[in-house]
Structures are given as structure tokens and as C-alpha cells.
Amino acid sequence: MAFEISTLMNNSKDKIILLRMKNDTTIQGLLKEFDIHMNLTLDDAEYVSDEKSDKLGTILIRGDNILAVSIPKEDS
Questions:
Q1: Helix residue ranges, H only, 1-76
Q2: How far apart are alpha carbons 13 and 49 in whole angstroms?
Q3: How high is the mean pLDDT of the chain?
Q4: Domain segments of the chain: what residues?
Q5: The domain over range 2-70 is classified in CATH as 3.30.230.10
Q6: How far is residue 6's CA from residue 23's CA, in Å, rounded to a whole number?
Q7: Most buried among 33, 37, 43, 64, using CB within 10 Å?
Q8: How far is CA 16 from the centre of its chain?
């Protein structure tokens, strides 16, 4: 299972991913790096909501704050 997750994340590098956080916020950004703890580095990150989006720039997100990750579909 961990191998599959690692493969999915590797295939998603340099692509936009969407993160649902435990504090009910949503963040999207360009995935640059990740580790075995799901700590993620995102470029061009921004908060996403219905009302507005706030630019965050380059950020590091600790893996235990992430509730869900949405990755782009692979091209067929």
C-alpha cells in the first residue's frame, strides 16, 4: 500500500494537487516534494474557498495536518 501511495505522489510531482486540511480549509498548489510522513512542499500554494483565494507562495505542510489529498488524473 505504501508503495502505491509513493508511486501516485511521485507521478503527481510538478502538478497541481488539492489538499483538504483537518481545520476545514482547502489548499491547492504545485507539488514539489514529499516524504514518508506525507510532509509536502508546495509552490504557488493558495487557500481556496467559495469567497476568495489567498496566495501563500511556497509552503511546507506537515503531513498529520492533512485530511485528504486530491491528485490529478493520469493521462491515458
A1: 2-11
A2: 24
A3: 90
A4: 2-70
A5: no
A6: 25
A7: 43
A8: 8
Give mean pLDDT, residues 43-60. 92
Quote the pTM value: 0.86
Bridge partners, residue 47, by sequence: 27, 54
What is the mean pLDDT of the segment spanning 27-54?
94
Task: Please tell me the distance from the alpha carbon of residue 27 to that of residue 5, in angstroms, as a whole number.
Answer: 20
- The pLDDT score that the predictor gives to residue 76 is 42
Q: Which three cell numbers stand for residue 30?
A: 504545485
Give residue 30's pLDDT.
97
- Cα–Cα distance, 48 to 36 (Å, whole number): 26
| Torsion sign (Cα): 54, 8, 62, 23 | positive
The one-letter amino acid code at 70 reads S
| Residue 42, C-alpha cell as written in the block | 508546495
Handedness of CA 21, 24, 25, 28 (dihedral sign): positive
Mean pLDDT in residue range 19-43: 96
